[in-house]
Amino acid sequence: xxxxxxxxxxxxxxxxxxxxxxxxxxxxxxxxxxxxxxxxxxxxxxxxxxxxxxxxxxxxxxxxxxxxxxxxxxxxxxxxxxxxxxxxxxxxxxxxxxxxxxxxxxxxxxxxxxxxxxxxxxxxxxxxxxxxxxxxxxx
Length: 139
Known about the structure:
Blueprint: E1 2-6, H1 15-28, E2 32-41, H2 43-54, E3 62-66, E4 72-80, H3 81-91, H4 95-110, H5 118-138
Parallel strand pairs: 1-2, 2-4
Antiparallel strand pairs: 3-4
Keywords: Cytoplasm, Endonuclease, Hydrolase, Metal-binding, Nuclease, Ribosome biogenesis, rRNA processing, Zinc
Enzyme class: hydrolase
EC number: 3.1.-.-
């Protein structure tokens, strides 16, 4: 089950399309869907979570809490729409593609991918690109 929650004025268009894509990504990693909760929010909302739960006094685009057990992918994914908009401008990509990258980034963490080292980050970027392409196949 995938739930989309909104703590800002942003609303994801065509939730079912995103739900199908996320499920396809999970299956492509030989995992099963448990329960995922996406929370779309603003910088202030995510900053408070970052300080309270992670002790990081910084802005970020995504925070994910992983509740995965074995091959069943579950978790809470918080996405700052403000950060996604800024990132899209900084990386010269569309907002839609940057949103997909951030949304799937959390899922890839749940699948076991890391991004702490430069090698891990490189693998994560490749996986993000690979999974974004699965979205385009959906359409």
